[in-house]
Amino acid sequence: MSKTQNLSKKQNGVAFLFLSPWIVGFLVLTLGPMLGSLYLSFTDYDLFNAPTWAGLENYARLGDDPRYLASLKVTLYYVLFSVPLKLGFALFIALILNRGLRGLGFYRSVFYLPSLLGGSVAVALMWRQIFSYDGIINQFLWGWFGYDAPSWITNPDYALGTLVLLAAWQFGAPMVIFLAGLKQIPQDMYDAAAIDGARPVQQFFYVTVPLLTPIIFFNFVMQTIGAFQAFTPSYIISDGTGGPADSTLFYTLYLYEQAFTNFEMGYASAIAWVLVAIIGLATTVSFLSAKYWVHYGDEG
Amino acid sequence: MTASQSRRSFLKTGSAAIGGFAMTVVAGGALAQGKTKIRFSGFVESEEQLATTLKVLKAYEAKNPNVEIIPEFSSYRAFTDKLATEAAGGNAPDMFSVNVDLLAEYAARGVLTPLTKWIPDPLDVSNYQEGSVFSCTYDGEMYAMPNDAIATAIFFNPAKFEEVGVAVPDQFYTWEKLHETAVALGKEHGRGFWGIEDGGGNNLACDIFLRVGGKALFTPEHTIGFNGEDMAKWFQYWEDMRQAGGAPPADVQAQAGDNSASLGIVRGRSAMLVQTTDSFIGIGALMDGPLELMMLPNGFEGGEMKQHHYDYAGNSTGIWTKAENKDLCVDIIRFMHFDPEGVDLYYTGSGMIPASTAGLEKFGSTGTENEKKIVAYLRMLREEPAPSRRPGVGGLGGIFRRHNEAVAFGDMTPLEAGNSLTAEIDGKLKALKS
Amino acid sequence: MTIAETHQMTSDINQTTARSKARSKLITHGFLILFALVMLYPLVWLAVSSLKPSNIIFSDTSIIPRHFEWQNYAHGWAGVAAPFKVFFANSFVIATIAVIGNVLSCSFVAYAFARLDFSFKAPLFALMMMTIMLPMHASLIPQYILFNHLGWINTILPIVTPKFLAVEAFFVFLMIQFIRGIPRELDEAAAIDGAGPIRIYFSIILPLLTPALVTTAVFTFLWTYEDFLTPLIYLTSIENYTVPQGLRLLQASRGASTWGAMLAMSLLSLVPMFIVFFIFQRKLIDGIATTGLKG
Asked: In this complex, which of A48, A125, A243 lies closest to B88 when CB atoms are compared?
């Protein structure tokens, strides 16, 4: 990220002053636990008795663990579908709301509501009320079409799908960030474009989209990381068991189960660090691609 | 420490954090000087039980002014996560609740203190139901004090039987009879109704099923008591039940989850449910009409009382190995279980059925309608109890449910599921012992 | 709303002309209101259910309440272990402190990454991103051991201290992106006037960063307020519980009478979040209007 700054001389003193909170936080609070967890991934550790060195054993186990592989598949599917859907939704609504409509505050707040509900028990109960065998959707399908539909949330073929839908429905956070980004685009840019005779559509593609790319990029990277670490959604339909039939066994849920139900903290730590590698790879690729499509205002 | 004192210290630390010199601030409780502090942790089984537990602890504090008991309660899942983290971090609560499977895990890993030293004085368990003592015992030593007595049963909604004229089975009946009854109920009620909730994922029901065949989930030596073929029979039984319409298809069943609010019996789409008696009051309260209890099939009809049911401790209280004041913890347990005043405060209105025979008699006559039904049920079992449930491994319920679901959704045959489950539990047992 | 209609909407938006502006606005509002209803449904369900007696909450699925069980609210508010207002106060204190911490520390750090040039910049940035890639369950126990060692258990320090130390890379990265959207000519003009990085940060960057600061404040508040795992592990005694922990006390595994109260308090627990969100999001609009961003 420093490519545009190569010409200026280094400002180490003042820079590290600004960085100091993070450096202290990293060294004191973050680094230790991270290294601890990395160390544990090479050990056999049941939480209550001292860890014993196990070398690469935990990592070697991963390839033969069908439930681990299932959780990886579930999570990749979730990332692949929920991220674009959620971001698409968020951007679409943000663009509509950014047109200077009356009642913007009201709409924005209402659209954020589902995100406020998070993964609470209330959402879990309500989600069942809608998608279960005797839920609203099926009452409708049976009452109007005589179609005896399955239970959408607890059929392995559809369960993950309804969670993708849930993620899309909770699009509030990226929407708010998109709106903040749209607000930051200077009106002058539109005025200048209008003087040059750009129509609204052209303004959208030549002003809005390019200037919003840093924010689109941010939301993309963060939502992807968040989706890889998805944990709470599995409480919505399976009370955190990953069911039905492991169809919503998220990666971090399996990690959690190994650590806190089976007391296999060493193995769980190995699972965690493989995830760090996967997310790291995905993030690196995103950052490399950013060169080609993200435009920063400070690049002139 | 009073609540207001504690709040002050809590906020004090908060303002210190704003000031940015947070490092020097000590833990919030340090203000209460000169008192011995005992952290008492547990999970909320019911609001009533939480209320009476807090009450009895307060009463103990009133009698012992230099003791301060800090109650730390949460939902079951939250409690287990927190306990594991705290124990791993060397800062577990002095005393805490466990259930049978947690007990085995925590006893085997050295987190719980054996209570042997304090038995029978002051903890005299001779008056306690054998099953409840047994379920608190691991490797020959008692590791926790049973708080309540529970047993596996079938809950049924009599109205759903009457509506369609299907008879409730007699006291002693076979697994085949249960099958017929459930299928008949499903057929008579029509679309969207099933006789019984799928019990294939219920390890407790399976234990009784195995005992009909002369086996059990676990042996007294804490080894596995069955093989893959036994388990295949169990999964096959429920597969047949689903196929015949006696139990809901897999996706409908999966809706029930862990949540009593989502159970078919509560929602009016089934008539029977296999459950432990400590859920009876809670589930009963979510239903409009009366709810009743009966035994699971014992594998024979009529005749003498030779059933395979037993009662055991639903939850129990244990002491952390590294607790500083173990004698004090024992004294708190004594107060809750043996001091007449403590017993009265702890059990009255708690919905718990005491594990001691005397307690059962005393509270059996004073409870609510549904409490009386549980007491009557437990009394009947105690006429000729089977050997009690033995401690197994943690996460048993999850393992059973997962395998039953695999069969129900067609991902495994009953035999595959049976073998896989057997291997998994065996592996966990061996890991525990190594 | 079908996909076809949605497409129709989009093209409506794109082809807005002065003549059809009013019509287009009407359609937009119609669409938004319809959409809002879908979004609101869960809340209506929650509100209605929280007023039903326990024995019919789950068997009677009707959305129209027949009688009102206000008792659920009184019951939940009074609580068994501690009154609910205690949990609200705790959550509020913690979330407010967290907001201050995150807004200050993250904007500092973001400024350095976005505008200043220093040694090891790329590796430090990568390291910061890495800290959010490790699932928190994996570092929970080492972290607990650390905080226990510091004597911070049952205080709010493990929750709020990290916020003052810019541990949440999410917000640092967010602000970096926003700062980089601010044209560099502004800094350069100030630099010519003799301003150093510190003055540029306070007089140029901070005012223009308002949208990102407000966003950070809102999300920090909401996410700290509703966080469950960290308070669960570090706040042990009941008087120190936050709202989500208070709700867990109503979540009995075998409970008889807590469902109504639990739903009632779930709904009530959303109210402060909604108010904070509503107020702050106004701020978001006002903030922009007054700073009058010039490119």
From this structure: A48
Which residues of chain A make contact with C135, given a CB cutoff of 8 A?
229, 231, 252, 255, 272, 275
> Per this entry, what is the length of chain C?
295
Residue pLDDT, tens place only, A213-238: 999 999 999 999 999 999 988 887 77
The Cα–Cα gap between B178 and A257 comes to 35
Q: Is A60 on the interface with C (CB under 8 A)?
A: no
Which pairing describes strands B67-74 and B137-138: parallel, antiparallel, or unpaired?
A: unpaired
Chain A nearest CA to B409, separation (Å): 7
ipTM of the complex, rounded to two decimals: 0.90
Min CA distance, C98 vs chain A (Å)? 14
**DSSP three-state, residue A252:** helix
In chain A, which stretches have pLDDT less than 70?
1-9, 119, 121, 299-300
Whether C279 contacts chain A with CB within 8 A:
no
CA distance C215 to chain A (A): 7
How many whole angstroms separate alpha carbon B262 and alpha carbon A125? 8
Residue A37, CA atoms < 13 Å, CB-side half-sphere: 29
Rounded CA separation B186/B169 (Å): 15
Q: Contact C12/C31 with Cβ under 8 angstroms?
A: no
Tokens of C57: 């909450």
Q: Is B401 in the A-facing interface, judged by CB distances under 8 Å?
A: yes
| Residue B294: its H or E element | strand B292-294
pLDDT in tens, C245-291: 998 888 776 665 678 888 899 889 989 998 998 888 777 655 444 34
Find out whether A160 and B264 touch, Cβ atoms under 8 Å. Answer: no
How do beta strands B270-276 and B194-196 pair? Answer: parallel
Q: Which of A138, A262, A265 to mutate to test the interface with B (most CBs of B within 10 A)?
A: A262
Q: Which residue of B lies nearest to A126 if distances are taken between CA atoms?
A: B262
* pLDDT above 90 for B238: yes
Report residues of chain C scoring pLDDT below 50: 1-6, 9-10, 12-13, 16, 287-295
Report CB contact under 8 Å: C40, A113. Answer: yes
Give the minimum alpha-carbon distance from B298 to chain C in angstroms, rounded to a whole number.
26
HSE-up (13 A, CA, CB side) for residue B121: 0
Q: What are the backbone angles phi and psi of residue B156, rounded to the nearest 5°?
A: -140, 150
Give the CA distances from residue C258 to residues A156, B415, C219, in Å, rounded to whole numbers and listed in that order: 31, 41, 30
Domains and CATH numbers, chain B: 14-146+314-376 (3.40.190.10), 151-310+389-433 (3.40.190.10)
